[in-house]
């Protein structure tokens, strides 16, 4: 019921927003005002509930880096392993 | 490096948070090392509870329980809106559909069984088969368009948590709700039920808080839970890497003696949430002590329409009313233990009806109906970690002996 589906905004009109869900295009309602074409949004039961933040996209990994760094300090994890993890996280961004 | 602006966030989510075995193994190593440190300081067992059916789905579907070190237990708490929708709403919807009022419902609630039969019928699915006017919709917008087109007297079985309620509120505020459409207001709030489950189950060491509910409420709504019960609380996304990261964060906080709210699902959730949506909900609805199926009345846990919008209330319009605390009756069928499954007190396999009288094809209890119901998830996506539980089920034992 609380499933959220990621979609890309195609068009914004006064009442509805046209969203592309990987090829399936649907009109949905929005609970946010600042929606523009090109935005990625989370849609739940036909309503835009959130806009995905590009800036925050990698924020999730800050915890893992913090924990890993602490474990390196404690001598439980090697510096090489920490670097490898950082490499995995940023790999998909590389050209 | 590509610039962030050129990234397809859908694809990136799949690559980074879902199909990422390499990273999953690294996070698991961190979890194992942190757990080893915690064990040295005296921990023998750690129980982490989630409050969203989608988190339970991810946990079970991807077999996350089987990956974790022994001693870390993941529990499913109340996180399925369909499962906790009291029977009296379903009975009202059935009755209306058989009396010629068109009832709109989300697919998840279509087969939801009621306790009392209405004219021999105990679900909207059966009501439709008996000539009732029932229409399954994907969204409220679909229902509104159908009402406008067909000009029928109609009602919407408005189940849902904080995630679903902005749609109803906005449709009323923006005058999109036609006057011949009413709502069966069955909405519930997640944090009061989370606190209820934490208290009833006891011994909960960490909480994976629901990501999509929190897009609306914001991470701040979980502060009370974290502080009152001293439980690390992580607002988590729904991919396997999100859930593993959240577990790692809970272990980290445990090792440091902290109990804070942290937002792991930062790509979609902010601290203060969706201000527009919260404002709309507050304008249209007020909070009341409300019934949860198989559980009873939980204080300040349900939505009801404010006086100025009561004309859209199906209960007012058609003469139904909410049960008081004294009037509330246990609303599960005999033998069904969904009330205990919902709050995480027992696992589905501990119910004697699981996969016998109650199956995904023929659900007996509400937790076997919805795709977010714990019983249905465990029935469809059982992983190697549940094999011992499955062996406890009699019909499998019997078939092994033959």
Indicate the CATH class of the domain at 82-190 and 273-318 in chain B: Alpha Beta
Shape of chain B: globular
Overall shape of chain A? elongated
Give the fraction of residues assigned to helices of chain B. Answer: 40-55%
Total of DSSP H or I helical runs spanning 4+ residues of chain B:
19
**Spans of at least 5 consecutive residues with low confidence of chain B:** 394-402
Whole-number mean pLDDT of chain A: 87
Question: How big a fraction of the residues of chain A is strand?
Answer: 25-35%
Task: Summarize the largest interface: chains and residue counts.
Answer: A-B, 53 and 76 residues
What radius of gyration of chain A results from the CA coordinates? 19 Å
Query: Low-confidence spans of chain A: pLDDT under 50, at least 5 residues?
Result: none
What's the number of helices of chain A?
2
Largest sheet of chain B: 5 strands, parallel
Oligomer type: heterodimer
Radius of gyration of chain B: 22 Å
Largest sheet descriptor of chain A: 5 strands, mixed, barrel
Helix and strand run of chain B: HHEHHEHHEHEHEHEHEHHEHEHEEHHHHH
Order of helices and strands of chain A: EEEEEHH
What CATH architecture of the domain at 82-190 and 273-318 in chain B would you give? 3-Layer(aba) Sandwich
Description:
The complex is a heterodimer of chains A (95) and B (402). Chain A has two helices and five strands, in the order E-E-E-E-E-H-H. Chain A has 95 residues and is α+β, with helices and mostly antiparallel strands. Chain A has a five-stranded mixed beta barrel. In chain A, strand 4 and strand 5 form a beta hairpin. In chain A, helix 1 runs antiparallel to helix 2. The longest helix of chain A is centred in the C-terminal third of the chain and has 13 residues. Chain A starts with a strand and ends with a helix. With 402 residues, chain B is an alpha/beta fold. Among the domains of chain B are: 155 residues, HypD, alpha/beta domain 2 (Rossmann fold, 3-Layer(aba) Sandwich), CATH 3.40.50; 53 residues, no CATH class. Helix content of chain B is 42%, strand content 15%. In chain B, strand 3, helix 7 and strand 4 form a beta-alpha-beta unit. The C terminus of chain B is likely disordered.
